[in-house]
Amino acid sequence: xxxxxxxxxxxxxxxxxxxxxxxxxxxxxxxIGSCVVITVYDPIQKVGALAHVMVPGAAPKxxxxxxxxxxxxxxxxxxxxxxxxxxxxxxxxSCLIGGGNVLKREGDTIGMENLASVEKLLREKGIKxxxxxxxxxxxxxxxxxxxxxxxxxxxxxxxxxxxWGNDEKRNIEKRNVK
Length: 178
Description:
Largest sheet: 6 strands, mixed
Helix content: 10-25%
Distance between the termini: 25 Å
CATH class of the domain at 11-21 and 30-138: Alpha Beta
Order of helices and strands: EEEEEHEHEEEEE
Structural class: alpha+beta
């Protein structure tokens, strides 16, 4: 018999989206290039959110569609969703993934601009940045298991590696990407 309590729900988070959840939720995002993926976590409530940010700053006034592609709007939405789920901003911790130049264009700074915008917003909100996997010229993926409080990532075609987690034993864990 299948134990429904142990089955985890996996949610894909695409460019310009913010998703959140609690125990039993895994958030995933793929094809991360110059975009920045933000994971935010409250380790006491075991509540988390993931945003896939495409553009630095805030959406122009009146822009309703695709507003979560903008760093400021996405960070605000993440905090709002998490507090609705019982999280406390004083306990929130984050990881950043992306901000690369995967198109290998000389002088392309959008990835670094996205990172600078996100980092500034998180500092202003008092959210600690625990780990980063940023820059470079290869795409990334991320998988955030909220219940375990761990963030895994890949760079290019690498195996999935632990970026951040509550349990220090997991720092040496590696799993093959499926």
